[in-house]
Write a structure and sequence with these properties.
Elements (H helix, E strand, L loop, with lengths): L3 E7 L4 H9 L7 E8 L6 H7 L4 E3 L8 H14 L4 E4 L8 H6 L4 E5 L11 H8 L3 E8 L9 E8 L6 H24 L3 E4 L2 E4 L8 E3 L11
Helix pairs in contact: 1-6
Bound molecules: 5-O-phosphono-beta-D-ribofuranosylamine (GRF).
Length: 223
């Protein structure tokens, strides 16, 4: 099967982009990263793209008077590159409904919580403030509503007694970097179906949509 032309949209560090680039180095991986777009010229992910030899462009939202004008430019870049699948990876702009609908069921986002809990920003701070025992990440199909849409893959991590937001974020990122390549592979291989706004996988195997942080293998207190 031809590899699906994929774009990754970023605003910052791009460690999830890095995980996708590394997965896509395997010629058997069903998606090829053909374009990286950043809305900020200083996004470190641009450097990661260059190192991987992937075309990278900046569409700086501050250069446009309206959200629509910004997105027209962005969509133009994606269309020119004949992009089929879009991965939002730490992309800090909310896209309007027409752009989201254009890639309906072909656009993914990663969010650092177990959705539908903790939509929005500062997830780790809120998880800690609530005293939750688990957190994680979610890769979902994008819908116009923020951090909503059919859930494809989730990763779970424990919240540990001495966690602060930074430590928890680091642990969540470890499962993000495994969850996103898995989710994109499932989408690109054509195994994702959406029924009643729920994801069904063709020939789903148990646990295929779940990543478990290695530290959850040994229950604390059982060591
Ligand atoms: C990740 O935690 C992701 O879940 C969130 O933004 C962060 C991006 O990190 N949407 P990076 O730029 O991929 O390193």
């Amino acid at each position: 099967m031809a590899r699906r032309a994929t774009a990754v949209l970023i605003s910052g560090s791009g460690s999830n982009l890095q995980a996708l680039l590394e997965a896509a180095r395997d010629p058997d991986y069903p998606a090829a990263i053909r374009l990286v777009v950043a809305n900020r010229p200083d996004a470190f992910g641009l450097e990661r793209a260059r190192r991987a030899g992937v075309p990278a462009v900046v569409v700086d939202h501050r250069a446009f008077a309206t959200r629509e004008a910004f997105e027209a430019e962005l969509v133009g870049e994606l269309s020119t590159a004949e992009i089929e699948l879009v991965c939002l990876a730490g992309f800090l702009r909310v896209l309007t409904a027409p752009t989201v609908e254009r890639w309906r069921d072909r656009m993914l986002n990663i969010h650092p919580s177990l959705l539908p809990a903790y939509r929005g920003l500062r997830t780790h701070e809120r998880v800690l403030a609530d005293g939750a025992a688990v957190s994680g990440c979610t890769v979902h199909l994008v819908r116009p509503e923020l951090d909503a849409g059919p859930i494809l893959v989730q990763g779970v991590v424990p919240v540990l007694p001495d966690d602060d937001a930074e430590r928890l974020a680091r642990r969540v990122l470890e499962v993000e970097h495994r969850a996103y390549p898995r989710a994109l592979a499932l989408l690109a291989s054509g195994r994702v179906r959406v029924r009643d706004e729920r994801v069904m996988l063709v020939d789903e195997r148990p646990g295929e949509r779940l990543i478990v942080h290695p530290s959850l293998g040994t229950p604390v207190g059982a060591r």
